[in-house]
Amino acid sequence: MRESRSGPRRPSTPESVTRASTDRDSGSADIGLGFLAELESWIATDTSGSAPALRSALLRRLRQAQADQPSMALVHQLAARALQVADGGAAREQKVPELRTELARSCEAERADLIAAGEAVARTAVELLDRREPWIATLSNSGTVRDALCRVRDSGREPRALCAEGRPRLEGRRLATALAAAGLPVWLVADAALPLLLSQVHALWIGADAVTDRGVINKIGSFATALAAREHSVPVYALAVRKKFLPAGTGALKIVEMPPGELWEEPATGVRPRNLYFEVVPLELLRGVVVEDGVLGPTEAAIVARERPLPEELAGG
Questions:
Q1: Which residues have CB under 8 Å from 45's CB, separation 6+?
Q2: How does pLDDT run across 196-240, given as a tens digit for each residue?
Q3: Is the dihedral of CA 304, 310, 316, 317 positive or negative?
Q4: Which residue ranges are recorded for the region named Disordered (predicted)?
Q5: DSSP designation for 5
Q6: Is 41 found in the same domain as 97?
Q7: In this structure, is residue 290 part of a structural domain?
Q8: Can you give the pTM of this predicted structure?
Q9: 134 and 257: one domain?
Q10: Same domain? 101 vs 126
């Protein structure tokens, strides 16, 4: 077996603390790690004088994090966990220093759990492949897909990747670069070319910013690519930790328009650029959702998503 070049996912660096809330290029798992780092920084600098004041300030901070990354279910679920920890500490009548310590410990635990969960998803994905030299297509910059492909290589196989560039920010180039650095042969193509080339691959693996009972939220272009995969009889899998599951009716979970200048800085008169990063891929187009302990079919994935609502204070209207 070859020596691993990928290794375990590292905790967020200090640089991540300043950019997680505005990060538009990383996969959602990496953004989740950045959220935890930002929350740790906030805890360390909080000046609340009482437990109720700390909870109120924390709630405002968590809601802002949700608003910063409204399409990221992982941010929503990690925020819910932080609020749960704060409420548990208040119920035990913890003093403010103790409550801060409890919140910081929770961030450490959630980081370790998230890393372990991502590794488990990667192991599960590897088990789907029965070829020594599989071609896997993907798009955008999913850290979970990246780690799974590297694990395929570390298992002694020879995976090859077909990556779409991920307009408008071209974050797919970052994924292609990382996979090439890990020793994988990589093709990088324009987003519009990916459906055409799917007949050459053995599977389409996509990341997931959220898994709901209606579908998987992922980078724009995922829907068309999944439709093309169906026409080519190519199996489509979304790779996601269970913390990314949310009911579709969650008000805080949104797909919002992004800066139009990313499409066209100075559009012609009468032209209005509409810049959407994300869309919903119906669960029916997927062979399954790869999670830590197996592969969920569309019906089961929908059931799991409906069972993971946010607390009312974070669910949104």
A1: none
A2: 999 999 999 999 999 999 999 999 999 999 999 999 999 999 999
A3: positive
A4: 1-26
A5: S
A6: yes
A7: yes
A8: 0.92
A9: yes
A10: no
Non-local (6+) Cβ contacts of 71 within 8 A are 209, 210, 217, 253, 254, 255, 256, 277, 278
**Do 192 and 115 share a structural domain?**
no
Residue 103 forms part of a structural domain: yes
The single residue of 23, 30, 209, 213 carrying the catalytic annotation is: 209
Q: What angle do CA 5, 133, 130 make, to 5 degrees?
A: 105
Residue where a domain terminates, one of 119, 151, 177? 119
Dist CA 72 CA 74 (whole Å): 5
Q: Looking at the domain assignment, is residue 208 inside a domain?
A: yes
Same domain, residue pair 47 and 97: yes
Assigned domain for 313 exists: no
Rounded-to-integer distance, Cα 44 and Cα 56, Å: 16
Long-range contact list for 39-44, CB < 8 A, 24+ apart?
39/65, 39/78, 39/82, 39/103, 39/107, 40/104, 40/107, 41/17, 43/100, 43/103, 43/104, 43/107, 44/100, 44/104
Q: Is residue 209 among the annotated active site residues?
A: yes
At 38, the amino acid letter reads: E
* Nearest CA-CA partner of 142 in 6, 301, 29, 279: 29
Question: What count of other Cβ atoms lies within 10 Å of the Cβ of residue 129?
Answer: 17
- Position 114 confidence tier, pLDDT thresholds 50, 70, 90: very high
- Residues 6+ away with beta carbon under 8 Å from 296: 288, 289, 304
- Region of 216 on the Ramachandran plot (φ > 0 left; ψ -120 to 50 alpha; else beta): beta
Q: Which residues contact 269 (CB under 8 A, 6 or more apart)?
A: none
- Give me the phi and psi of 120, to 5 degrees please: -65, -40
Domain of residue 153, residue span: 122-308
| Cα–Cα distance measured from residue 225 to residue 169, given in angstroms and rounded to the nearest whole number | 18
Number of compact structural domains in the chain? 2
Domain boundary (119, 144, 171) is at 119
| CA distance linking residue 145 with residue 161, whole number of Å | 10
